[in-house]
Specification:
288 residues; globular
Length: 288
């Protein structure tokens, strides 16, 4: 039996793929890199809040047929470090990604971010526009303000991280998934286990506590209007976490953007419709 060209490419990618950590800005950063034997284009994937590279597990094999793929766990999530000295903010995440790209000698990428990861992408476009060939925002966070002063003060209390743990445990992974996935039939044990895994390490709750204190809020409209990177905004019609109204507002503020809203999809686009998402991404990436 003869292998198709796409099968050969995927075999090469699997053999040469890299899954490792680098120490950057005082923290261990976990990333996965899937090189393509012919492509010079790299897609950088950044996940959302309470998530990890796991959320792109359906999108990566599809996109890896055509491009190099770099997926990163943003601290304190996934397999990245939970250092108490790291600053858990959009701006510092942006610096971390910039340093990671330098260390990997990657000069330009297609910035692709889901939810919270989309806001980190926007910060990179603002701080280092030369690194962003284009941007793809998947139900991106937008216009969130910094935590209230009372919550920031409370986060400094001893054992506040225990409260964070109990709060998340009360909600539960499966219940959270039901909130972000429109078609609940897609929620299986693999998905539940995958999103549960990072929270088996108690150190993540200390990182989340620091994030409450250090999260500076999303970029303001005046900042967004200065971003010239071409952006594709993809949204789920039934997104309860970041409603389509946020996508429409971002579309108005980002001067070089296109918005597409998918019917019958919730917040977790890469999980719910990876083929549809990738088709839109590829048309945008390969277009003029």
């Amino acid at each position: 039996m003869f292998l198709r060209e796409v099968d050969c490419v995927l075999i090469i990618q699997k053999e040469k793929s890299v899954k490792e950590k680098k120490f950057i800005l005082g923290n261990e950063i976990y990333y996965e890199y899937y090189p393509h034997p012919q492509s010079t284009t790299t897609i950088l994937l950044l996940h959302g809040f309470l998530s990890s590279t796991f959320s792109f597990r359906k999108l990566i094999p599809i996109a890896a047929r055509d491009y190099n793929i770099l997926s990163v766990d943003l601290p304190p999530f996934g397999n990245s470090g939970k250092s108490s000295s790291y600053i858990y903010s959009h701006k510092n995440h942006s610096k971390m990604i910039i340093e990671l790209l330098k260390s990997l000698e990657i000069n330009q990428v297609i910035l692709t971010g889901h939810s919270m990861g989309g806001q980190t992408c926007l910060n990179i476009m603002k701080d280092a526009p030369e690194l962003a060939a284009k941007g793809v925002l998947l139900c991106s966070s937008g216009y969130l303000k910094r935590s209230k002063a009372s919550l920031i003060f409370s986060s400094r209390l001893p054992f506040f991280h225990v409260f964070v743990k109990r709060l998340l445990a009360k909600t539960g992974v499966e219940r959270n998934l039901q909130n972000v996935v429109f078609n609940h039939a897609l929620i299986d044990q693999e998905m539940v286990d995958g999103y549960m895994q990072p929270f088996l390490n108690n150190e993540i709750f200390k990182g989340l506590t620091k994030m409450i204190r250090e999260w500076e809020g999303d970029l303001l409209s005046e900042d967004l209007k200065q971003i010239e990177t071409p952006c594709l905004l993809l949204w789920g019609e039934h997104d309860k976490v970041v409603p389509p109204e946020i996508g429409r507002r971002l579309h108005e503020d980002l001067p070089n953007s296109t918005l597409r809203i998918f019917e019958g999809i919730g917040h977790l686009l890469p999980e719910e419709e990876p083929e549809k998402v990738y088709t839109s991404m590829k048309e945008f990436i390969d277009g003029a």
